[in-house]
Q: What sequence folds into this?
């Protein structure tokens, strides 16, 4: 049964093989979904999504190492875990260097864990198009937890809030990047904050700063934890905090606004006429206003 | 050329991945999606990564001299996992005298230290052409074609 001709399988066959545990079928289905194949997207629609956690924060703070720790933790409890590691594509060449799984040494060979690197491709934000459908495909394949790693601090973070149930914001000691998030009022959208590299000086200090920032913004109930992905300290506490996250009505409105916006965007961009409209624009053949009319008044 | 999903892996025990990273960047700059695995992956782990990432090309880098064992091992595992269409190339320090054996094992190109980005691009162009005209090129085909 191993990997027999996924090339010639229909998306319905791929979906049912993926649901039966075939990693190869899941892998191909995810590719087709990302390419915008309508039948594949439909094959996962209506699936009830697994609990999804977005893991975000500035570059290099240890998001991948921490994702590795979390995935291994849940796998050690017998749960199946799907991981999506998102990295940007060059808007000019389309190329992308996907290096997150390099840090996922514990998870890499665990049968309960499925890791997939995803480039943002033609999406202009920090999230790829059709991310929601990819999450559904992982859920269909029996993943009980889904972790989505994205780089970002500031405006781009809002996207991940819309795609996942829970957001973990990761920062490092004395980076101060998270102050950006605070300025933009985005820190409150995080459900849990982890200051990683707790083995280094300054982590406790950074956590204290974040806590006082949160207290000013009237959201002191957001837990701020110091962890170390390197020494694997604070992981149990982090898991507990993530599992205890409560739904916040104020965040739900933000979440659904962005969920709806990105669903509309996915649909518009997936239409076969979209690319030719962009080309016409770039060649100066039509105006932006004409393009908008073409898209919405088909 | 449409972007390919390419895994760049470093099997074996040596701890130098400068060369592999240079290759990964060159392929990215040529417009491909490059998944870099990091150091010291076992052949089993590499095959698992290819499968999960739905990659169609695999670049293996080795400086340890263990390529004679590791590259054929990876090729064997790819075939037994049914990943016959994957195209494998090698890089690193691989003496001329070792190459024929690797080609026979299913490696389709070997790039030495002086390789330029253009060489990689030309190889990939050829791979895509062969694929679209149904000529054998994957690790599972036994006709022994290799790029030179
Ligand atoms: N001292 C220390 N270093 C860590 C810790 N966690 C991660 N690192 C190191 O930090 C660097 C970046 O780790 P990653 O996990 O790749 O960070 P990231 O946030 O995923 O990075 P990007 O995806 O590139 O934004 C690596 O060199 C890690 O070894 C930690 O807890 N303590
Ligand atoms: Mg990362």
A:
């Amino acid at each position: 049964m191993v990997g027999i001709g996924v090339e010639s399988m229909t998306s319905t066959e791929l979906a049912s093989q993926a649901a039966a545990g075939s990693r190869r079928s899941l892998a191909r289905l995810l590719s087709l979904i990302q390419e915008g194949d309508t039948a594949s997207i439909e094959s996962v629609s209506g699936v009830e999504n697994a609990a999804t956690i977005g893991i975000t924060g500035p570059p290099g703070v240890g998001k991948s190492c921490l994702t590795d720790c979390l995935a291994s933790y849940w796998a050690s409890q017998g749960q199946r875990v799907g991981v999506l590691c998102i990295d940007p594509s060059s808007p000019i060449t389309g190329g992308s260097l996907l290096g997150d799984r390099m840090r996922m040494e514990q998870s890499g060979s665990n049968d309960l864990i499925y890791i997939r690197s995803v480039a943002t491709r033609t999406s202009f934000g920090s999230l790829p198009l059709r991310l929601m459908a990819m999450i559904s495909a992982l859920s269909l394949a029996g993943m009980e937890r889904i972790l989505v790693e994205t780089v970002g601090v500031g405006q781009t973070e809002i996207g991940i809030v819309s795609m996942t149930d829970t957001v973990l914001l990761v920062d490092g000691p004395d980076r101060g990047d998270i102050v950006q998030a605070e300025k933009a009022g985005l820190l409150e959208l995080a459900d849990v904050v982890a200051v990683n590299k707790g083995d280094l000086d300054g982590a406790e200090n950074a956590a204290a700063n974040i806590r006082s920032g949160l207290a000013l913004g009237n959201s002191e109930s957001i837990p701020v934890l110091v962890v170390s992905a390197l020494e694997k300290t604070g992981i149990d506490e982090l898991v507990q905090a993530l599992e205890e996250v409560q739904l916040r009505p104020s965040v739900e409105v933000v979440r659904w606004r962005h969920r709806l916006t990105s669903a509309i965007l996915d649909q518009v961009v997936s239409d076969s006429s979209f690319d030719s409209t962009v080309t016409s624009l770039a060649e100066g053949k039509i105006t932006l206003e004409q393009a908008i009319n073409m898209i919405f008044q088909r | 050329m449409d972007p390919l999903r390419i895994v760049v892996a470093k099997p074996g025990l040596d701890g130098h991945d400068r060369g592999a990273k240079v290759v990964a960047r060159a392929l990215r700059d040529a417009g491909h999606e490059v998944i870099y695995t990091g150091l010291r992956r076992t052949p089993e782990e590499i095959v698992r990564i290819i499968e999960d990432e739905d990659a169609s090309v695999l670049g293996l880098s080795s400086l340890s001299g263990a390529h004679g064992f590791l590259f054929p091992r990876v090729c064997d595992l790819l075939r037994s996992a049914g990943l016959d269409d994957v195209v494998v190339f090698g890089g690193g320090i691989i003496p001329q005298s070792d190459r024929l054996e690797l080609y026979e094992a299913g490696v389709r190109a070997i790039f030495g230290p002086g390789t330029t980005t253009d060489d990689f691009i030309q190889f990939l162009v050829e791979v895509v052409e062969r694929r679209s005209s149904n000529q054998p090129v994957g690790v599972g085909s036994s006709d022994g074609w290799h790029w030179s």
